[in-house]
Predict the structure.
Amino acid sequence: MKIRKMRKTEKQVFLKMEKKELYPWLSIRALEDRLWEKALPYILEVDGSIIGGVVWEEYDVFPNGKSIIDLAAIFILNSFRGQGYGKKLFEKSLALAKESLNAIAIHIETVGQEAFYRKVLPSDYVEMTINVGGTMVTFFAANITGL
């Protein structure tokens, strides 16, 4: 298993996988426009095949140069789920993004994946669920200075 920064040549493969696993209602173009301005995309390879990916983005920057980062997307191909790959991808990519973006906290919003984040976040996370136009959206925030 290998987690590494995505190469530009892998961008279209990544976008197609992200569309299939996370955003089937969005076009590839919409995903590309939404994602790649200040994004840090990482991929997960197993035996030379890409089986998952994650995108971290800078969410906010403070005057001291420290930042809050946002988990824009994380996915594992369906046939590889339930084997711990998501947790490993989350933890390793968070460490890389934290260092790269001088991050002190993370922000996550999700629909339906709350259990995953409760497992992988530091124990002092904050969670809030609100009704957004009929959809229950859960927000997480966590201090990552101790990681």
